[in-house]
Amino acid sequence: PINTADKPLPHPEEVLKSIFGLPSFRGEQAEIIRHVVDGGDAVVLLPTGAGKSLCYQIPALCREGVAVVVSPLIALMRDQVEALRQSGVRAAALNSTLTQEEARDIREALTAGELDLLYVTPERLASDGFISFLARVPLALFAIDEAHCISQWGHDFRPEYLQLGRLKERFPDVPRLALTATADPQTRDDLVHRLQLDDARIFSASFDRPNIRYTIVRKDNAKSQLRDFLKAHEGASGIVYCLSRKKVEETADWLTAQGILALPYHAGLDRSIRDKHQDAFLKDEGPVLVATIAFGMGIDKPDVRFVAHLDLPSSIEAYYQETGRAGRDGLPSDAWMAWGMSDVSLRRRMIDEGASPELVKQVERTKLDALLHVCETATCRRQALLAHFGESHAGACGNCDACLTPAEMWDGTEAARKALSAIYRTGQRFGAGHLIDILRGNKTEKVERSQHDDLPTFGVGKDLDQKSWQSVFRQLAARGIISIDHTAYGALKLEESARPVLQGQQPVELRRDPVSKRRQRAAAAA
Ligand code: ADP
Ligand code: ZN
Predict the structure, then answer these.
(1) Are the C-beta atoms of 48 and 181 separated by less than 8 Å?
(2) pLDDT tens, position by position, 141-165
(3) What keywords are assigned to this protein (predicted)?
(4) DSSP bridge pairs for 68
(5) Would you call 150 exposed, middle or buried from its count of C-beta atoms within 10 A (0-12, 13-18, 19+)?
(6) DSSP classification of residue 148
(7) Please, which residues have CB within 8 angstroms of residue 382's CB and are 6 or more apart in sequence?
(8) Ligand 1 centroid vs 311 CA: distance in angstroms?
(9) 298: Cβ below 6 Å to ligand 1?
(10) Which of 22, 38, 215, 520 is the most core-located residue (most Cβ within 10 A)?
(11) Which of 32, 53, 145 to mutate to test the pocket of ligand 1 (most atoms within 8 A of CB)?
C-alpha cells in the first residue's frame, strides 16, 4: 500500500524502475510478478542470484495490503529491510531480537495500514496469537522464502515451517508464493504438498550455471593444494569454506604466512571484526575470505571469482548453494573442492551423533552419498549435479575437471570381481579395511581370528596396493554396485547390480586416481 485508496496501484514496471532503479525484468520475473499481482499462488524455483526477492517485493507494492514475508534468517531480514527502507519502501521485521515496544510499534503500523512489507520468522507467523492478529490486517500476499525448509527431504529442515501449511485455510483469499533456490524433485513435491500449493503455478528455470567451472580433487596435502589453486587466482576475490571455526582461523593464518591475503570469518568472531572483514571482502578486489558457512547467505557480490571447499559439504544442495555464490555476474568462475576419506568419516559421524531423529538421519546419509557420487564420478560433474535436481544434461560440458582432463581409465573387471567376492564370502559383514587385508593377504589378528586366511580370496589381490583397493571399493560404492551399511560399522553389502559383475557378465571400467606430485616425488626418491 504505497498508495492510498484514492491513488491507483502502480504497475510492476513502474515499481521496478522508480523504486528499484532497474531497467528491465530478468528471466521469468515479469511472468511471476504478473501472476501474483493478479492473485495467483506460485512456486518459484530459481537458482541463487536469479532475483527471487523482486518476485514478492514488487507484488507487495502493487497490491492492497501488507505483504508478509517468512524468512528463517534474521540477519538476512535485517539487510533486506534496510535496503528496502533506503529505497523508500515501508518495511519492517518482526523477530525475537525486538523489544516489546518495538514489536508494538510494528503492530500498530500494521493495523494502521502503514507498512508495505513485513518480514517475520516462521515461528512468529505460526503462533496462534499472531495469526488472529493478522486476520484483522489487510494482506497483499504471503511469501515463504527458503521454502525447502518445510521438507524433511530438504537439506535444511526446520520444524517451525510445518505450521505454514495452515495459511491456506486461514487466509484462503491471500495469494501465497513459495521460493527456493535449492530443491531436488522429491523435496519440491513435498514442499508443494505441505504448503498446500498443489494448484499453484510452478515457475522454474534451469539450475545450470554454465560459467562456473567445477573441479573436485582428492585431498593430498590439502593446504598446499589450496595454495596452488589460489595462486592461479591472484587478485581475484573469493571464498574458502571450512567446516569449523578453528580450521577457518588456522587456514587464514597459514595462507597469510604464505603471502596470500586471507581474512577469517565465522560466527565466533566479534561483530566488529566480522563486519570489517566482510567489508574488505565486498570491496572490488577484496582479499580471500576464509569462512564457515555462516558467511554467504544474503551476500550480494556479483564478482566472486571462486569458491573453494576445504571440507566436504553436507549435501549436493549445500554444495550447490555455496558454489552458487561464485560468478553471479556471468563471467568465468571456479568452484574448487578438495575432499578425502576423513571428511567422509567426519560427516558420517556428525550425522550419527547429531540430534536429528533417525528418519532424518537416513535422509542425511542419502544426501551425503549423493554428493560422494558426484565426487567420485569419472564423467561430467555438471551432468551429475544437474541430474540430482531432476535436470538432464547431455554431459561433456567442457567446463568441469572431468571433461577438461578426462581421467585415465583401466579395466577393473577382475579387481571388481575379487572385491565383490571378498564381500560375498565374508557374509557382507565387514568394512573395506578388513576386506583389503584379505585381498592383499595380510595375516592380521582379525583375519586369523575369523579364519579368513582360509578363504579362496585370501591374497588374490597382491597386485594392487592398499590405496588402489580403496579406490576400487569407493568407485564400486559410488556406482551403487555395493553399499555401505552405516548401521553396521560401515559393512559393505552387495547390491543387485553386483550380480552380473560377480558372474563375469559385465565389464567394469575404473578411473585411475591421479597420483599426486608429492606421491610421485616420494616414489621417485624411494
Ligand atoms: P535470489 O534471492 O534469487 O538469490 P536476489 O533477489 O537476492 O536473488 O537478487 C540477486 C541480485 O540480482 C540482486 O542484486 C538484485 O538486485 C539483482 N536483480 C534482481 N532482479 C534484477 C533485474 N531485473 N535486473 C537487474 N538486477 C536484478
Ligand atoms: Zn563436464
Answers:
(1) yes
(2) 999 999 999 998 777 888 899 999 9
(3) ATP-binding, DNA damage, DNA recombination, DNA repair, DNA-binding, Helicase, Hydrolase, Isomerase, Metal-binding, Nucleotide-binding, Zinc
(4) 118, 142
(5) buried
(6) G
(7) 208, 214, 393, 395, 397, 399, 400, 403
(8) 29
(9) no
(10) 215
(11) 53
For the four alpha carbons of 289, 290, 292 and 293, in that order, the dihedral sign comes to positive
Task: Give nearest CA residue, ligand 1 atom 21.
Answer: 51
β partners of residue 484: 492
Q: Is the CB of 49 under 6 A from ligand 1?
A: yes
Report the SS3 class of residue 308.
strand
Residues 6+ positions from 325 with CB-CB distance below 8 Å: 48, 49, 239, 296, 299, 301, 304, 307
400 in Cβ contact with 215 (< 8 Å)? yes
Residue 120 to residue 106: CA distance in whole angstroms = 11
For ligand 1, atom 25, the nearest C-alpha belongs to 22
Task: Please give the distance of CA 177 from its chain centroid, rounded to a whole number.
Answer: 22
CA of 324 to the centre of ligand 1 (A): 14
Dig out the grid coordinates for 99 from the structure: 523489544
pTM, 2 dp: 0.76
Task: Scan for cell 580403496, then name that residue.
Answer: 470
Average pLDDT in the chain: 91
Q: How far apart are CA 56 and CA 60, in angstroms?
A: 6
Interface TM-score (ipTM) > 0.90:
yes
Contacts of residue 450, defined as CB under 8 A and 6 or more positions apart, other chains included, come to 426
Going by alpha carbons, the residue nearest to atom 19 of ligand 1 is: 51
